[in-house]
Amino acid sequence: MAAGGSDSDRRRAKAALFLACCGLVGIAPHWLPPGRSLVPAITLATLLGGYSLRTVLLQAFRRGSNDTPQPDLSFSAVGSAAPPSAVDVVVAARDEQAVIARLVERIAALRWPEGQLTLWVVDDGSDDRTPELLAELQGRHPFLRVLRRSREAGGGKSGALNLVLQQLSGRWMLVLDADADLQSDVLERLVPWAEAGGWAAVQLRKAVANAQTNLLTSAQAMEMAFDAMIQEGRLANGGVAELRGNGQLLSREALLKVGGFNEDTVTDDLDLSFRFLLEGLPIGVLWDPPVQEEAVLTLPALWRQRQRWAEGGLQRFFDYGPGLVSNRLGFSQKLDLTCFFLLQYVLPVVASADLLATVLTRTAPTMWPFSIVALALSGLAIATGCRRPSEGPPLPAMNPFSAGLGILYLVHWFVVIPWVTLKMALLPKRLVWVKTLHLGAEQAEPNPLEGASEDPDGQTELVSEAG
Predict the structure, then answer these.
(1) pTM value?
(2) Does domain 87-296 have CATH number 3.90.550.10?
(3) Taking the domains of the chain in order of start, what are their residue ranges?
(4) Bridge-partner residues for 149, per DSSP?
(5) pLDDT tens digits for 163-212?
């Protein structure tokens, strides 16, 4: 499935402009006198560092584990006397024989009134034993519904989710990956919380089930705790929260309002987050209970996964930029998105340009104060998040070594973001659907033939390829 030529050209032009602007910002200080070359970086570090401390960390310190503030609106809120809402759990699966039976049994263990819970599995053209296993499971579990589509149907996970969306009638849609694990009381806590708070969507904290496997999985567990805490802090200060794919509860009414899932993006969850935002549909974040998932086990798998995340994250700013600066968003939301964009996307590209200018001009780096402050605040957020009381798998214990590992791990974004931006700016894009594998709990070590394609998102995955 290929993206439209005109859209692809526009995105490439925007990426090129973004790259040029960041490059200029990174190189320009090297032309200043030595006494003034650090002024831009110190100014950015002071402003963004102060904003991060005030709006993210300090807010997060003051809250209990489930005290996320409620939005000042009512989106189809219901009273406590209302009967439990119908929930459709939806999973897109391709070649998931290692985990699909375990997932169905986990959904069967959820506490929710009989007849109000349906599990929909979209068999996305599986070539392994997934279809046979699903047929056997249907005989034992009346709540299981299976849809099948051809391997060439297109659209990947988004296409599969759009197919099942046409069949749903429940009020809520819980999207899971095939490797997801949930506590049995998750719906009893999640759905009433979402309805009482007036949320159009809620993202559960993602917890890494295999954090003890190696240093890489441990670092990803730290990152997930860091991400959830940062999202709560942004939301607490009037900013925005985002969906993360696995463990996202969506109002079917809200989802239909924004037109379903976008099949022309590499990250359907991030894209959907912005469309909800622009329609005034609030997204909440719930620390406990979490949704568990497998982390990738190898650096090649991490590299491929993070390239997709980086491209999808940047693409949505290009696609929805006009709406983000319009009066559809409030000042606090715009400020939050601006700071997030500067820290997540601008800083890595500017830092790379600064490093290049340092080599070419043989002058001292100029952006290091900005980078050091951002990494230091990230390390503080990791330590705080991992020390926070939490359900699910234990979070990594915090000590100087683990905190240092978390900070060192986050440096990979300083490589991924510039590389992906360069590719987006220079190379035409075509969308290619690539299967990603789940190993399941039975396999402690990755299959060396499959390691490059692992991804905890766990569905047929949309990646961007030059061609």
Answers:
(1) 0.86
(2) yes
(3) 5-64+329-466, 87-296
(4) 124
(5) 999 899 899 999 999 999 999 999 999 999 999 999 999 999 999 999 99
